[in-house]
Amino acid sequence: MENKSLFGKTLAIIPGLAVMVGTLYVLRVYVEPWMKDAVVFGSKGWLVQVLSLNYILLSIITGMIYRNILFGGKIPGWAEEGFRTTRLFIKSGVIMLGSLYTFDKLLKVGGIAITLIVSFVFGTAIFIMWLGKKLNADRSVTATMAAAAGVCGVSACVATAPGVRAKPVDVALSVATILGFGIMTMFISPFIGKALSLSDYQFGAWVGTGILNSGQVLATCLAFNPVFAPGTAVAYGEIWNVVRVVCIPFVVFFITAWYWKSEASAEKLGLGSILASKFPIFVLGFIGMTALSSAHVLGAEGSETLHLLRNVMAWVFGIGLVGLGAYIDIREIKAAGGVPLRIGLIAGVVKYILALIIILTLIPKEGAF
Amino acid sequence: MAEKNKSLTVFKSDRHEDVAAIIFSGLVVVVVLTYMAFIVPSVKIKPTQDGKLVQLFVSEGSMVKNGDKLYSLEVVKKKWVNNQMEEKMAVETFTAKTNGKVLKVSGTPGDKVKKGKETLVVLDHEKGTLP
Predict the structure, then answer these.
(1) Which of A14, A355, B38, B125 could form a disulfide linkage to A209, CB 3.0–4.6 angstroms apart?
(2) Domain extents for chain B?
(3) pLDDT value at residue A267
(4) Minimal CA separation from B122 to chain A, in Å
Protein backbone atom coordinates (compact mmCIF):
# COMPACT_ATOMS: atom_id res chain seq x y z
CA MET A 1 0.00 0.00 0.00
CA GLU A 2 2.83 2.40 0.96
CA ASN A 3 4.42 2.05 -2.50
CA LYS A 4 1.28 2.87 -4.45
CA SER A 5 0.77 6.26 -6.11
CA LEU A 6 -2.00 8.56 -4.95
CA PHE A 7 -4.07 7.37 -7.93
CA GLY A 8 -3.44 3.74 -6.98
CA LYS A 9 -4.38 4.40 -3.37
CA THR A 10 -7.59 6.15 -4.41
CA LEU A 11 -8.44 3.31 -6.78
CA ALA A 12 -7.91 0.76 -3.99
CA ILE A 13 -10.49 2.57 -1.85
CA ILE A 14 -13.29 2.31 -4.42
CA PRO A 15 -14.45 -1.36 -4.07
CA GLY A 16 -14.87 -1.28 -0.29
CA LEU A 17 -16.37 2.19 -0.35
CA ALA A 18 -18.82 1.07 -3.04
CA VAL A 19 -19.95 -1.78 -0.77
CA MET A 20 -20.50 0.68 2.12
CA VAL A 21 -22.40 3.21 -0.01
CA GLY A 22 -24.42 0.50 -1.82
CA THR A 23 -25.37 -1.12 1.48
CA LEU A 24 -26.59 2.14 2.93
CA TYR A 25 -28.53 2.92 -0.27
CA VAL A 26 -30.40 -0.39 -0.08
CA LEU A 27 -31.07 0.04 3.65
CA ARG A 28 -32.34 3.63 3.39
CA VAL A 29 -34.25 3.39 0.12
CA TYR A 30 -35.75 -0.10 0.34
CA VAL A 31 -35.37 -1.77 3.74
CA GLU A 32 -36.29 1.07 6.11
CA PRO A 33 -39.49 2.10 4.22
CA TRP A 34 -40.50 -1.59 4.08
CA MET A 35 -39.98 -1.93 7.84
CA LYS A 36 -42.15 1.13 8.52
CA ASP A 37 -45.06 -0.55 6.72
CA ALA A 38 -44.40 -4.17 7.67
CA VAL A 39 -47.01 -5.78 9.92
CA VAL A 40 -45.44 -7.89 12.66
CA PHE A 41 -47.47 -9.41 15.52
CA GLY A 42 -50.50 -7.63 14.03
CA SER A 43 -48.92 -4.22 14.47
CA LYS A 44 -47.84 -1.99 11.57
CA GLY A 45 -44.33 -0.59 11.98
CA TRP A 46 -43.56 -2.88 14.94
CA LEU A 47 -39.94 -3.32 13.82
CA VAL A 48 -39.35 0.42 13.94
CA GLN A 49 -41.50 1.42 16.90
CA VAL A 50 -40.80 -1.49 19.25
CA LEU A 51 -37.34 -2.68 18.18
CA SER A 52 -36.12 0.86 17.38
CA LEU A 53 -34.66 -0.54 14.17
CA ASN A 54 -33.79 2.15 11.66
CA TYR A 55 -31.17 2.52 8.94
CA ILE A 56 -28.59 3.58 11.54
CA LEU A 57 -28.75 0.38 13.59
CA LEU A 58 -29.26 -1.68 10.42
CA SER A 59 -26.06 -0.18 8.98
CA ILE A 60 -24.06 -1.40 11.96
CA ILE A 61 -25.74 -4.82 12.00
CA THR A 62 -25.17 -5.27 8.25
CA GLY A 63 -21.51 -4.27 8.65
CA MET A 64 -21.17 -6.90 11.41
CA ILE A 65 -22.80 -9.53 9.18
CA TYR A 66 -20.38 -8.70 6.36
CA ARG A 67 -17.31 -9.18 8.51
CA ASN A 68 -18.36 -12.04 10.74
CA ILE A 69 -20.46 -14.14 8.34
CA LEU A 70 -19.99 -13.10 4.72
CA PHE A 71 -16.25 -12.34 4.91
CA GLY A 72 -15.49 -15.13 7.40
CA GLY A 73 -14.05 -12.90 10.15
CA LYS A 74 -11.71 -10.69 8.11
CA ILE A 75 -12.38 -7.87 5.68
CA PRO A 76 -11.00 -9.17 2.35
CA GLY A 77 -8.04 -7.43 0.73
CA TRP A 78 -10.08 -6.00 -2.17
CA ALA A 79 -12.40 -4.16 0.27
CA GLU A 80 -9.92 -3.37 3.05
CA GLU A 81 -8.81 0.09 1.91
CA GLY A 82 -12.39 1.24 1.35
CA PHE A 83 -13.46 0.14 4.82
CA ARG A 84 -10.51 2.07 6.26
CA THR A 85 -12.35 5.27 5.34
CA THR A 86 -14.85 4.48 8.13
CA ARG A 87 -13.45 6.97 10.65
CA LEU A 88 -13.14 9.64 7.96
CA PHE A 89 -16.91 9.48 7.46
CA ILE A 90 -17.70 9.39 11.18
CA LYS A 91 -15.39 12.34 11.89
CA SER A 92 -16.85 14.26 8.93
CA GLY A 93 -20.34 13.57 10.25
CA VAL A 94 -19.33 14.82 13.70
CA ILE A 95 -17.96 18.03 12.14
CA MET A 96 -21.19 18.53 10.17
CA LEU A 97 -23.21 18.03 13.36
CA GLY A 98 -21.76 21.39 14.42
CA SER A 99 -24.41 22.88 12.12
CA LEU A 100 -27.12 21.87 14.64
CA TYR A 101 -25.89 24.45 17.16
CA THR A 102 -25.18 28.09 17.69
CA PHE A 103 -22.66 29.21 20.30
CA ASP A 104 -25.38 30.43 22.69
CA LYS A 105 -26.98 26.95 22.59
CA LEU A 106 -23.63 25.28 23.28
CA LEU A 107 -23.07 27.62 26.25
CA LYS A 108 -26.47 26.68 27.69
CA VAL A 109 -25.52 23.04 28.16
CA GLY A 110 -21.73 23.27 27.93
CA GLY A 111 -21.25 23.78 31.69
CA ILE A 112 -23.31 20.72 32.66
CA ALA A 113 -21.70 18.63 29.93
CA ILE A 114 -18.15 19.59 30.98
CA THR A 115 -18.87 18.94 34.68
CA LEU A 116 -20.42 15.52 34.05
CA ILE A 117 -17.92 14.37 31.45
CA VAL A 118 -14.81 15.45 33.36
CA SER A 119 -16.13 13.77 36.55
CA PHE A 120 -17.00 10.55 34.75
CA VAL A 121 -13.90 10.38 32.55
CA PHE A 122 -11.40 10.84 35.37
CA GLY A 123 -13.61 8.98 37.88
CA THR A 124 -13.69 5.91 35.61
CA ALA A 125 -9.95 6.05 34.99
CA ILE A 126 -9.22 6.26 38.75
CA PHE A 127 -11.72 3.47 39.47
CA ILE A 128 -10.06 1.18 36.90
CA MET A 129 -6.59 1.91 38.30
CA TRP A 130 -7.86 0.96 41.76
CA LEU A 131 -9.68 -2.13 40.46
CA GLY A 132 -6.64 -3.21 38.43
CA LYS A 133 -4.47 -3.05 41.56
CA LYS A 134 -7.07 -5.00 43.58
CA LEU A 135 -7.27 -7.73 40.94
CA ASN A 136 -3.48 -7.78 40.38
CA ALA A 137 -3.84 -6.90 36.71
CA ASP A 138 -0.84 -5.96 34.59
CA ARG A 139 -0.30 -2.16 34.77
CA SER A 140 -0.11 -1.75 30.99
CA VAL A 141 -3.44 -3.43 30.35
CA THR A 142 -4.97 -1.53 33.29
CA ALA A 143 -3.77 1.72 31.70
CA THR A 144 -5.16 0.94 28.24
CA MET A 145 -8.46 -0.21 29.78
CA ALA A 146 -8.63 3.01 31.85
CA ALA A 147 -8.21 5.03 28.64
CA ALA A 148 -10.67 2.90 26.69
CA ALA A 149 -13.42 2.83 29.32
CA GLY A 150 -12.72 6.31 30.67
CA VAL A 151 -12.77 8.54 27.66
CA CYS A 152 -13.29 7.53 24.09
CA GLY A 153 -12.86 3.88 23.31
CA VAL A 154 -10.51 3.09 20.50
CA SER A 155 -8.84 6.49 19.98
CA ALA A 156 -7.82 7.02 23.61
CA CYS A 157 -6.68 3.44 24.00
CA VAL A 158 -4.45 3.61 20.91
CA ALA A 159 -3.14 7.04 21.99
CA THR A 160 -2.24 5.79 25.47
CA ALA A 161 -0.57 2.53 24.39
CA PRO A 162 2.98 3.76 23.58
CA GLY A 163 3.34 5.78 26.80
CA VAL A 164 2.40 2.81 28.99
CA ARG A 165 4.35 0.25 26.93
CA ALA A 166 1.18 -1.66 26.11
CA LYS A 167 1.50 -4.70 23.89
CA PRO A 168 -0.80 -5.04 20.85
CA VAL A 169 -2.72 -7.72 22.76
CA ASP A 170 -3.40 -5.23 25.61
CA VAL A 171 -4.84 -2.76 23.10
CA ALA A 172 -6.85 -5.48 21.37
CA LEU A 173 -8.27 -6.77 24.68
CA SER A 174 -9.26 -3.28 25.84
CA VAL A 175 -10.80 -2.33 22.50
CA ALA A 176 -12.67 -5.65 22.20
CA THR A 177 -14.05 -5.33 25.74
CA ILE A 178 -15.35 -1.79 25.38
CA LEU A 179 -16.66 -2.32 21.85
CA GLY A 180 -18.51 -5.44 23.01
CA PHE A 181 -19.94 -3.52 25.92
CA GLY A 182 -20.83 -0.66 23.56
CA ILE A 183 -22.73 -2.96 21.18
CA MET A 184 -24.78 -4.30 24.05
CA THR A 185 -25.62 -0.83 25.39
CA MET A 186 -26.34 0.45 21.87
CA PHE A 187 -29.22 -2.00 21.53
CA ILE A 188 -30.64 -1.87 25.06
CA SER A 189 -30.35 1.88 25.74
CA PRO A 190 -33.26 3.00 23.50
CA PHE A 191 -35.55 0.49 25.31
CA ILE A 192 -34.42 1.72 28.74
CA GLY A 193 -34.79 5.34 27.61
CA LYS A 194 -38.34 4.75 26.41
CA ALA A 195 -39.29 2.65 29.44
CA LEU A 196 -38.14 5.44 31.76
CA SER A 197 -39.76 8.13 29.56
CA LEU A 198 -36.47 9.98 29.21
CA SER A 199 -36.62 13.18 27.19
CA ASP A 200 -34.22 13.72 24.27
CA TYR A 201 -32.11 15.96 26.53
CA GLN A 202 -31.82 13.33 29.27
CA PHE A 203 -31.22 10.49 26.82
CA GLY A 204 -28.50 12.39 24.94
CA ALA A 205 -26.78 13.35 28.19
CA TRP A 206 -26.95 9.78 29.54
CA VAL A 207 -25.72 8.06 26.39
CA GLY A 208 -23.04 10.74 25.84
CA THR A 209 -21.76 10.04 29.37
CA GLY A 210 -22.25 6.27 29.59
CA ILE A 211 -21.32 4.94 26.12
CA LEU A 212 -17.68 4.99 25.11
CA ASN A 213 -17.40 5.20 21.34
CA SER A 214 -18.35 8.21 19.19
CA GLY A 215 -20.07 6.16 16.50
CA GLN A 216 -21.99 4.14 19.08
CA VAL A 217 -23.14 7.29 20.95
CA LEU A 218 -24.54 8.75 17.73
CA ALA A 219 -26.11 5.47 16.62
CA THR A 220 -27.79 5.00 20.01
CA CYS A 221 -29.16 8.55 20.03
CA LEU A 222 -30.51 8.10 16.49
CA ALA A 223 -32.10 4.78 17.46
CA PHE A 224 -33.95 6.66 20.23
CA ASN A 225 -34.96 9.53 17.92
CA PRO A 226 -33.86 9.34 14.27
CA VAL A 227 -34.24 13.09 13.61
CA PHE A 228 -31.19 15.31 12.97
CA ALA A 229 -32.36 18.67 14.36
CA PRO A 230 -31.69 21.02 17.27
CA GLY A 231 -33.26 19.73 20.48
CA THR A 232 -33.11 16.04 19.53
CA ALA A 233 -31.21 13.26 21.33
CA VAL A 234 -28.37 13.31 18.79
CA ALA A 235 -27.94 17.09 19.18
CA TYR A 236 -27.53 16.78 22.96
CA GLY A 237 -25.54 13.54 22.84
CA GLU A 238 -23.04 15.07 20.45
CA ILE A 239 -22.22 17.95 22.81
CA TRP A 240 -21.31 15.38 25.48
CA ASN A 241 -19.38 13.39 22.88
CA VAL A 242 -17.32 16.37 21.73
CA VAL A 243 -16.45 17.35 25.31
CA ARG A 244 -15.36 13.74 25.90
CA VAL A 245 -13.22 13.66 22.76
CA VAL A 246 -11.52 16.92 23.80
CA CYS A 247 -10.55 15.19 27.09
CA ILE A 248 -8.43 12.57 25.25
CA PRO A 249 -5.01 14.26 25.56
CA PHE A 250 -5.58 15.15 29.22
CA VAL A 251 -6.59 11.58 30.08
CA VAL A 252 -3.65 10.17 28.11
CA PHE A 253 -1.34 12.40 30.17
CA PHE A 254 -3.07 11.48 33.45
CA ILE A 255 -2.87 7.73 32.79
CA THR A 256 0.71 7.76 31.52
CA ALA A 257 1.77 9.90 34.55
CA TRP A 258 0.22 7.22 36.80
CA TYR A 259 2.14 4.55 34.91
CA TRP A 260 5.45 6.45 35.12
CA LYS A 261 5.23 6.61 38.89
CA SER A 262 6.45 3.02 39.19
CA GLU A 263 8.36 2.73 35.91
CA ALA A 264 11.55 4.74 36.27
CA SER A 265 12.82 3.84 32.81
CA ALA A 266 9.63 4.76 30.95
CA GLU A 267 9.75 7.54 28.38
CA LYS A 268 8.29 10.65 30.01
CA LEU A 269 6.42 13.25 27.98
CA GLY A 270 5.00 16.60 29.08
CA LEU A 271 1.35 17.60 28.81
CA GLY A 272 2.31 20.13 26.14
CA SER A 273 3.82 17.55 23.82
CA ILE A 274 0.88 15.18 24.37
CA LEU A 275 -1.55 18.00 23.58
CA ALA A 276 0.42 18.85 20.43
CA SER A 277 0.49 15.26 19.17
CA LYS A 278 -2.82 13.84 20.41
CA PHE A 279 -5.35 16.69 20.34
CA PRO A 280 -8.17 15.57 18.02
CA ILE A 281 -8.10 18.55 15.68
CA PHE A 282 -11.26 17.51 13.84
CA VAL A 283 -13.04 19.06 16.85
CA LEU A 284 -11.86 22.42 15.48
CA GLY A 285 -13.90 21.63 12.36
CA PHE A 286 -16.95 21.04 14.59
CA ILE A 287 -16.40 24.45 16.23
CA GLY A 288 -15.92 26.03 12.79
CA MET A 289 -19.23 24.55 11.63
CA THR A 290 -20.97 25.92 14.74
CA ALA A 291 -19.42 29.32 13.94
CA LEU A 292 -20.93 29.17 10.41
CA SER A 293 -24.30 28.18 11.88
CA SER A 294 -24.12 31.01 14.46
CA ALA A 295 -23.39 33.48 11.64
CA HIS A 296 -26.46 32.09 9.74
CA VAL A 297 -24.27 31.21 6.76
CA LEU A 298 -25.81 27.73 6.40
CA GLY A 299 -29.39 28.90 5.87
CA ALA A 300 -32.26 29.66 8.24
CA GLU A 301 -33.66 27.02 10.60
CA GLY A 302 -36.48 25.25 8.77
CA SER A 303 -35.04 26.10 5.33
CA GLU A 304 -34.74 23.57 2.52
CA THR A 305 -30.98 24.23 2.49
CA LEU A 306 -30.55 23.01 6.06
CA HIS A 307 -32.90 20.13 5.32
CA LEU A 308 -30.66 19.01 2.44
CA LEU A 309 -27.49 19.52 4.51
CA ARG A 310 -28.88 17.31 7.29
CA ASN A 311 -29.94 14.68 4.79
CA VAL A 312 -26.40 14.60 3.38
CA MET A 313 -25.09 14.40 6.98
CA ALA A 314 -27.28 11.34 7.57
CA TRP A 315 -25.73 9.66 4.50
CA VAL A 316 -22.20 10.52 5.62
CA PHE A 317 -22.88 9.00 9.06
CA GLY A 318 -24.63 5.97 7.62
CA ILE A 319 -21.64 5.11 5.38
CA GLY A 320 -19.35 5.39 8.40
CA LEU A 321 -21.60 3.18 10.50
CA VAL A 322 -21.63 0.35 7.93
CA GLY A 323 -17.84 0.48 8.25
CA LEU A 324 -18.01 0.63 12.05
CA GLY A 325 -20.07 -2.57 12.04
CA ALA A 326 -17.50 -4.23 9.80
CA TYR A 327 -14.77 -3.44 12.34
CA ILE A 328 -16.61 -5.36 15.06
CA ASP A 329 -15.04 -8.79 15.14
CA ILE A 330 -17.12 -11.18 17.23
CA ARG A 331 -14.14 -13.55 17.59
CA GLU A 332 -12.02 -10.78 19.12
CA ILE A 333 -14.79 -10.00 21.59
CA LYS A 334 -15.14 -13.70 22.44
CA ALA A 335 -11.36 -13.89 22.90
CA ALA A 336 -11.39 -11.05 25.43
CA GLY A 337 -11.44 -12.63 28.82
CA GLY A 338 -9.91 -12.98 32.24
CA VAL A 339 -9.09 -10.09 34.51
CA PRO A 340 -9.04 -7.34 31.80
CA LEU A 341 -12.57 -8.30 30.71
CA ARG A 342 -13.79 -8.24 34.31
CA ILE A 343 -12.22 -4.82 34.90
CA GLY A 344 -13.68 -3.36 31.69
CA LEU A 345 -17.15 -4.79 32.24
CA ILE A 346 -17.37 -3.77 35.92
CA ALA A 347 -16.20 -0.23 35.09
CA GLY A 348 -18.50 0.00 32.06
CA VAL A 349 -21.59 -1.19 33.94
CA VAL A 350 -20.89 1.06 36.96
CA LYS A 351 -20.40 4.07 34.68
CA TYR A 352 -23.52 3.28 32.63
CA ILE A 353 -25.80 2.85 35.66
CA LEU A 354 -24.31 5.71 37.69
CA ALA A 355 -24.67 8.04 34.70
CA LEU A 356 -28.35 7.07 34.40
CA ILE A 357 -28.98 7.70 38.12
CA ILE A 358 -27.26 11.10 37.97
CA ILE A 359 -29.09 12.11 34.79
CA LEU A 360 -32.45 11.12 36.33
CA THR A 361 -31.59 13.05 39.49
CA LEU A 362 -29.97 16.18 38.11
CA ILE A 363 -31.02 16.70 34.50
CA PRO A 364 -34.55 18.02 33.89
CA LYS A 365 -36.66 16.67 31.05
CA GLU A 366 -37.00 20.12 29.50
CA GLY A 367 -34.22 20.57 26.97
CA ALA A 368 -31.93 23.57 27.16
CA PHE A 369 -32.73 24.43 23.52
CA MET B 1 0.87 0.00 17.28
CA ALA B 2 1.63 1.09 13.73
CA GLU B 3 -0.29 -1.94 12.51
CA LYS B 4 -3.22 -1.04 14.74
CA ASN B 5 -3.31 2.48 13.32
CA LYS B 6 -2.97 1.18 9.78
CA SER B 7 -5.94 -1.07 10.29
CA LEU B 8 -8.13 1.84 11.31
CA THR B 9 -7.32 4.54 8.78
CA VAL B 10 -6.40 4.90 5.15
CA PHE B 11 -4.31 7.98 5.96
CA LYS B 12 -0.72 8.27 7.22
CA SER B 13 -1.85 9.20 10.73
CA ASP B 14 -4.87 10.22 12.80
CA ARG B 15 -3.83 13.84 12.35
CA HIS B 16 -3.95 13.48 8.55
CA GLU B 17 -7.36 11.85 8.86
CA ASP B 18 -8.61 14.76 11.02
CA VAL B 19 -7.49 17.29 8.42
CA ALA B 20 -9.06 15.23 5.63
CA ALA B 21 -12.35 15.11 7.59
CA ILE B 22 -12.32 18.92 7.97
CA ILE B 23 -11.63 19.38 4.24
CA PHE B 24 -14.23 16.78 3.21
CA SER B 25 -17.01 18.20 5.41
CA GLY B 26 -16.12 21.72 4.26
CA LEU B 27 -16.39 20.61 0.63
CA VAL B 28 -19.75 18.95 1.28
CA VAL B 29 -21.08 22.18 2.80
CA VAL B 30 -19.77 24.28 -0.09
CA VAL B 31 -21.36 21.93 -2.65
CA VAL B 32 -24.73 21.94 -0.83
CA LEU B 33 -24.79 25.75 -0.43
CA THR B 34 -23.72 26.35 -4.05
CA TYR B 35 -26.31 23.89 -5.33
CA MET B 36 -29.11 25.46 -3.32
CA ALA B 37 -28.09 29.07 -4.03
CA PHE B 38 -27.31 28.86 -7.75
CA ILE B 39 -28.14 25.53 -9.36
CA VAL B 40 -31.44 24.15 -8.07
CA PRO B 41 -34.10 25.48 -10.49
CA SER B 42 -36.93 25.64 -7.95
CA VAL B 43 -37.55 24.57 -4.39
CA LYS B 44 -40.30 22.21 -3.30
CA ILE B 45 -41.47 23.27 0.15
CA LYS B 46 -42.90 20.35 2.11
CA PRO B 47 -44.43 20.27 5.59
CA THR B 48 -41.87 19.92 8.35
CA GLN B 49 -44.43 18.31 10.68
CA ASP B 50 -47.53 16.12 10.39
CA GLY B 51 -50.70 18.19 10.68
CA LYS B 52 -53.79 19.70 9.08
CA LEU B 53 -53.47 22.48 6.55
CA VAL B 54 -55.18 25.60 7.94
CA GLN B 55 -54.35 28.27 5.39
CA LEU B 56 -52.24 28.96 2.32
CA PHE B 57 -51.15 32.61 2.26
CA VAL B 58 -49.76 32.66 -1.28
CA SER B 59 -51.08 31.98 -4.76
CA GLU B 60 -49.44 30.94 -8.02
CA GLY B 61 -47.45 33.75 -9.60
CA SER B 62 -47.23 35.85 -6.44
CA MET B 63 -43.89 37.26 -5.26
CA VAL B 64 -42.73 36.59 -1.71
CA LYS B 65 -40.04 38.12 0.44
CA ASN B 66 -37.94 36.56 3.16
CA GLY B 67 -40.21 36.24 6.22
CA ASP B 68 -43.53 36.36 4.34
CA LYS B 69 -46.10 33.78 5.47
CA LEU B 70 -46.46 30.76 3.16
CA TYR B 71 -48.86 28.40 4.94
CA SER B 72 -50.09 27.43 8.39
CA LEU B 73 -50.66 23.99 9.88
CA GLU B 74 -52.59 22.74 12.87
CA VAL B 75 -50.09 20.52 14.67
CA VAL B 76 -49.71 18.64 17.92
CA LYS B 77 -47.02 20.38 19.95
CA LYS B 78 -45.20 18.27 22.51
CA LYS B 79 -43.18 19.91 25.23
CA TRP B 80 -41.73 18.83 28.55
CA VAL B 81 -42.99 21.17 31.29
CA ASN B 82 -42.11 20.45 34.93
CA ASN B 83 -41.03 16.95 33.92
CA GLN B 84 -44.44 16.21 32.37
CA MET B 85 -45.06 15.84 28.65
CA GLU B 86 -47.63 18.41 27.58
CA GLU B 87 -49.43 17.92 24.28
CA LYS B 88 -51.57 20.63 22.80
CA MET B 89 -52.96 21.56 19.43
CA ALA B 90 -51.47 24.73 17.98
CA VAL B 91 -51.48 26.56 14.68
CA GLU B 92 -47.94 27.06 13.35
CA THR B 93 -47.21 29.49 10.54
CA PHE B 94 -44.34 28.76 8.18
CA THR B 95 -42.54 31.54 6.36
CA ALA B 96 -40.38 32.00 3.28
CA LYS B 97 -36.66 31.83 4.00
CA THR B 98 -35.76 33.86 0.93
CA ASN B 99 -37.24 36.11 -1.78
CA GLY B 100 -38.81 34.48 -4.82
CA LYS B 101 -41.77 33.77 -7.07
CA VAL B 102 -44.41 31.15 -6.25
CA LEU B 103 -44.63 28.71 -9.18
CA LYS B 104 -47.20 26.31 -7.79
CA VAL B 105 -49.44 25.86 -4.76
CA SER B 106 -51.00 22.53 -3.76
CA GLY B 107 -53.54 21.53 -1.15
CA THR B 108 -56.67 23.07 0.32
CA PRO B 109 -57.42 24.04 3.93
CA GLY B 110 -58.49 20.97 5.90
CA ASP B 111 -56.14 18.57 4.08
CA LYS B 112 -54.15 16.28 6.31
CA VAL B 113 -50.45 16.44 5.46
CA LYS B 114 -47.50 14.23 6.36
CA LYS B 115 -44.05 15.48 7.24
CA GLY B 116 -41.85 15.62 4.13
CA LYS B 117 -44.46 13.99 1.86
CA GLU B 118 -46.72 16.44 0.00
CA THR B 119 -45.32 19.52 -1.76
CA LEU B 120 -47.28 22.57 -0.61
CA VAL B 121 -45.44 25.36 -2.43
CA VAL B 122 -42.99 25.38 -5.32
CA LEU B 123 -40.80 28.46 -5.19
CA ASP B 124 -38.44 29.96 -7.76
CA HIS B 125 -36.03 31.62 -5.34
CA GLU B 126 -33.78 34.59 -6.00
CA LYS B 127 -30.43 33.20 -7.20
CA GLY B 128 -27.59 33.61 -4.72
CA THR B 129 -29.85 33.22 -1.69
CA LEU B 130 -30.47 30.12 0.42
CA PRO B 131 -34.08 28.92 0.26
Answers:
(1) A355
(2) 2-39, 43-125
(3) 62
(4) 12
